[in-house]
């Protein structure tokens, strides 16, 4: 497949936390593998040469459209999409028994249902602008291979994790021993890699990830074995860390230490690791997480339901921890990462409000709140960096993973829930440019209606309604 693309128009990205750039009338060109080969102002000599020398037709964006990096969902339980939006009334450990384990076991026993659920999940992700996703799967190898196949076919960049768990409150949903679990993890890694081995490197979009569910479902022997497997095979690791009060207390009572210590001594806090939640970590713990190179998937919506503590986002950022956002389906009810961005800002502002009400001041100039531009960074470049990807920005050498957003139409009227009264009716500004206020309004009010295109590695994805 030739993934060469030429697009001229407005580009928006956040190369650094809080630094939003709106680049008007730029030209982006990719090579045949979907990697950006040129990105400059369209009126530069190099851009003019590119316009005349490449055979591919140039896409010229209409007024009111801009190109933005795809969203990166750093934490999503694929089988739990089966019951998304249900069962959020229980504490975490009870919820797992009542909903999560049952749903995962059901998909493990019905490959046709799994394929149907995962196919719909992939379409929904594309509609919501998510081009890269880090997925928790189930225990059974075949079901996770179905998940990997579906994501590869859909054109999504996906990191797929077969669950490893040799302890469970549901005896029918666990692996029989640590050694059995380790053998299954190794087998899945090999077979998942085989799925794309015959493809060119740039078309291999799916990658296996080691996935110990969390400390309460994994013996020390299993965790240590997974740490060794990760090091030997250079495999990414994902799990849950310090998520909820009842989960933290279970680990303390059963292991006699904090779960961060269990992960650390097992060789599972590494630069290849993404830990979800981390709501009960303090600043010294963030310092240690940063020193290990471990990243965090912040899932604000599910934290509101299952954690007695809000995530200390600003403190983690101040310590240099790499952070992205996750939806945590189905612990969070919304698959749209735009809602994760909005909840991240809201919760951080409430934390700042609580600080003010407690009589604490910002004499040091620091605030616990984040703004929408910082949240956009977390949803794009932040998540990509956590996964070791060069996506999330528009730069030469980066794969072209992007979405096209439309905020106003040819008449200057807002699209979807967006309204721009200054650009409508008599005296309206002709051919207005996309402004920071327009991007902010889209961030607050936009949805799938505003999304008119999606690309992963230069390939155009199907964004048509289901």
TrEMBL record:
InterPro entries: Amidohydro-rel, Metal-dep_hydrolase_composite, Metal_Hydrolase, Metallo-dep_hydrolases. Transmembrane segments: none annotated. Residues 66-402 form the Amidohydrolase-related domain. It comes from the Eukaryota. GO terms for cellular component: cytosol. Its cofactor is Zn(2+). GO terms for molecular function: guanine deaminase activity; zinc ion binding. GO terms for biological process: guanine metabolic process. SUPFAM superfamilies: Metallo-dependent hydrolases. Signal peptide: none annotated. Keywords: Hydrolase, Metal-binding, Zinc. It holds the Pfam family Amidohydro_1. This is Amidohydrolase-related domain-containing protein.
């Amino acid at each position: 497949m030739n993934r060469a693309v030429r697009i001229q128009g407005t580009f928006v990205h956040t190369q650094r936390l809080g630094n939003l750039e709106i680049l008007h009338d730029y030209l982006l060109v990719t090579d045949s593998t979907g990697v950006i080969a040129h990105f400059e102002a369209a009126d530069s000599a190099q851009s003019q040469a590119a316009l005349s020398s490449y055979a591919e037709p140039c896409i010229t964006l209409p007024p009111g459209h801009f190109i933005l990096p795809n969203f990166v969902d750093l934490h999503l339980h694929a089988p739990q999409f089966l019951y998304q939006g249900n069962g959020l009334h229980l504490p975490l450990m009870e919820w797992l028994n009542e909903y999560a384990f049952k749903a995962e076991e059901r998909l493990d026993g019905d490959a046709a249902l799994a394929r149907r659920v995962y196919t719909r999940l992939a379409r929904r992700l594309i509609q919501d602008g998510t081009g890269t996703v880090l997925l928790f799967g189930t225990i059974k190898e075949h079901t996770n291979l179905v998940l990997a196949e579906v994501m590869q076919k859909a054109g999504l960049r996906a990191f797929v994790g077969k669950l490893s768990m040799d302890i469970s409150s549901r005896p029918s949903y666990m692996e029989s021993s640590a050694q059995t679990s380790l053998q299954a993890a190794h087998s899945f890694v090999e077979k998942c890699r085989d799925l794309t081995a015959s493809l060119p490197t740039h078309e291999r979009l799916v990658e296996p990830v080691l996935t110990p569910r969390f400390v309460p479902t994994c013996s020390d022997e299993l965790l240590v074995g997974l740490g060794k497997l990760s090091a030997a095979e250079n495999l990414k690791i994902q799990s849950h860390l310090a998520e909820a009060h009842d989960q933290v207390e279970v680990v303390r009572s059963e292991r006699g230490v904090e779960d961060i210590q269990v992960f650390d001594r097992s060789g599972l806090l590494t630069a290849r690791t993404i830990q979800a939640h981390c709501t009960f970590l303090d600043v010294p713990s963030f310092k240690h997480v940063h020193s290990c190179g471990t990243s965090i998937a912040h899932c604000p919506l599910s934290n509101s339901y299952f954690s007695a503590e809000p995530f200390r986002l600003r403190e983690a950022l101040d310590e240099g921890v790499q952070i992205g956002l996750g939806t945590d389906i189905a612990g969070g009810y919304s698959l749209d990462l735009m809602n994760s961005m909005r909840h991240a800002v809201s919760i951080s502002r409430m934390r700042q409000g609580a600080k003010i009400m407690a009589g604490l001041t910002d004499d040091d100039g620091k605030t616990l709140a984040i703004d929408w531009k910082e949240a956009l960074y977390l949803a794009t470049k932040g998540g990509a960096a956590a996964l070791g990807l060069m996506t999330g920005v528009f730069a030469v050498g980066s794969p072209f993973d992007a979405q096209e957003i439309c905020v106003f139409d040819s008449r200057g009227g807002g699209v979807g829930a967006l309204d721009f009264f200054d650009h409508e009716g008599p005296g309206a500004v002709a051919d207005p440019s996309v402004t920071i206020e327009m991007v902010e309004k889209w961030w607050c009010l936009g949805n799938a209606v505003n999304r008119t295109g999606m690309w992963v590695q230069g390939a155009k994805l199907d964004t048509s309604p289901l």
